[in-house]
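for the writeup, i need someone to sanity check this before i put it in the appendix. the sequnce is what the collaborator sent (i think, or maybe the updated version? ugh). structure was predicted straight from it, no edits. if anything looks off just tell me and ill rerun, i have time this weekend
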Amino acid sequence: MIIELENHLDELKKMNYMELLTLRNEALSDIKAFERDYDMKSGWEYMPSPDVFYQMNLKKLAEIIPLMEEAFRNEYVSGEKNIDDYYREIRGVGKNME
């Protein structure tokens, strides 16, 4: 389990800002869906249960946020890209969320 987590973190660290942003958006979408739709009284016939996926998405979000901050700084603040590049790229990511 620890090895899997380390591999997962290594993969996340290789991602650029827009890739991390997409993962963040997916995790947030899943978190919101759980919070909106989860019925504690319902019996679940599959494992892991939705509350386990919820916890996994919260953990993923906690891992992604610091990496996003670092990637943004490296790519858009001190990197080769500038804020205009960011605005162009963010529009593409936003279209994928609609």
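Helices lie at 2-13, 17-37, 50-77, 83-97. Residues 30 and 53 are 9 Å apart (CA to CA).
thx in advance!!
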